[in-house]
């Protein structure tokens, strides 16, 4: 296998025809490169001229050492990590490609160095993280909820929801609420509403409007902004949705809001689901990822949608010394 660094154009040419996450696209990576600190490294593994592995990483050099990150923290990127596309369906050969590619990338970024902090949050499609473990990185399993909407009608999906969620959605149909898709102005409203919610909870909202604006604009049809307003145009709530080749992702917004005792968020999610079934941005989009199933309080709500629990993996440096390095890195990064 030949492993080399690619530019964005070469990266785009090497992407597979399906299964591409939104933050694996050249457009999203270009925005991250513009706004994040560090060196964007795009690794490609090839068998002859055929790409068999891709791995985007951001490398940040600090006085305390290096951080190798996929994705970089603080930019609202839920998952990134490697993509492995073996040319053979045989398990033995798939494992061989996966191991060789990951080992080559880890060696190039110097993961064995005691001053190198490594962290990768992988997509659910990357289902064999053992090469990270074999390189003495810690591997943890996380979860998300994914609602499969392929070959489903809206009536069938609504029936699969919990009784309380169905009631909320039906009650919402009687209210003076209009949910529409909006452009950058709507994205700005969702952004500001989310920022206020963080401030109310005494939390720092890490995203800048410039970054959100550039991302939504760059990924084009891979983003949609849903906004709920009263009949007189008053903003109630909204969410920004991003799209991989296969799924819609709840990305930003959805701050808690009720109108006449009905959850606006439930109505927003339902409109997104309706559009995935009846009017997706790409025909290949057939599921809705509710983004995260790791916080008990949030799971009580998200589980009402009857979605499947889907695992994904986090690989990172481990050990007492590395815990100290992580704390130091967070202090320097503030």
Automatic annotation (TrEMBL):
This protein's record includes keyword Lipid biosynthesis: no
Stored InterPro entries: Acyl_CoA_acyltransferase, BioF2-like_GNAT_dom, PG_Glycine_Bridge_Synth
Domain BioF2-like acetyltransferase: 160-302
Source domain of life: Archaea
Signal peptide range in chain numbering: none
Keywords of this entry: Transferase
Gene3D superfamilies linked: 3.40.630.30
Transferase recorded as keyword: yes
UniProt-recorded Gene Ontology molecular function terms: transferase activity
PANTHER family in the record: LIPID II:GLYCINE GLYCYLTRANSFERASE (PTHR36174)
Protein name according to UniProt: Acetyltransferase (GNAT) domain-containing protein
Source organism: Natronoarchaeum philippinense
């Amino acid at each position: 296998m030949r492993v080399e660094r690619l530019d964005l154009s070469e990266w785009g040419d090497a992407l597979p025809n399906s299964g591409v996450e939104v933050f694996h696209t050249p457009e999203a990576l270009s925005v991250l490169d513009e706004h994040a600190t560090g060196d964007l490294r795009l690794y490609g593994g090839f068998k002859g001229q055929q790409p068999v592995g891709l791995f985007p990483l951001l490398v940040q050099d600090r006085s305390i050492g290096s951080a190798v990150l996929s994705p970089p923290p603080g930019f609202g990127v839920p998952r990134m990590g490697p993509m492995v596309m073996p040319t053979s369906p045989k398990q033995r050969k798939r494992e061989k490609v996966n191991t060789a590619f990951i080992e080559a990338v880890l060696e190039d970024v110097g993961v064995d160095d005691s001053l190198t902090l490594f962290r990768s949050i992988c997509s659910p499609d990357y289902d064999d993280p053992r090469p990270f473990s074999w390189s003495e990185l810690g591997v943890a399993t996380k979860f998300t909820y994914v609602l499969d909407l392929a070959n489903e009608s809206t009536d069938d999906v609504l029936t699969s929801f919990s009784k309380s969620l169905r009631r909320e959605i039906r009650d919402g149909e009687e209210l003076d609420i209009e949910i529409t898709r909006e452009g950058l102005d709507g994205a700005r409203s969702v952004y500001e509403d989310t920022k206020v919610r963080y401030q109310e909870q005494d939390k720092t909202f890490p995203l800048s409007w410039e970054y959100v604006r550039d991302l939504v604009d760059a990924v084009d049809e891979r983003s949609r902004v849903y906004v709920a307003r009263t009949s007189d145009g008053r903003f109630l709530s909204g969410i920004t949705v991003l799209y991989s080749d296969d799924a819609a992702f709840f990305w930003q917004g959805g701050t808690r809001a009720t109108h006449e005792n009905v959850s606006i968020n439930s109505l927003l999610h339902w409109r997104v689901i309706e559009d995935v079934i009846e009017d997706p941005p790409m025909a290949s989009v057939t599921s809705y990822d509710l983004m995260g199933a790791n916080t008990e309080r949030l799971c009580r709500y998200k589980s009402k949608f009857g979605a499947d629990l889907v695992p994904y993996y986090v690989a990172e440096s481990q050990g007492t010394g590395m815990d100290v390095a992580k704390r130091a890195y967070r202090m320097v990064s503030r």
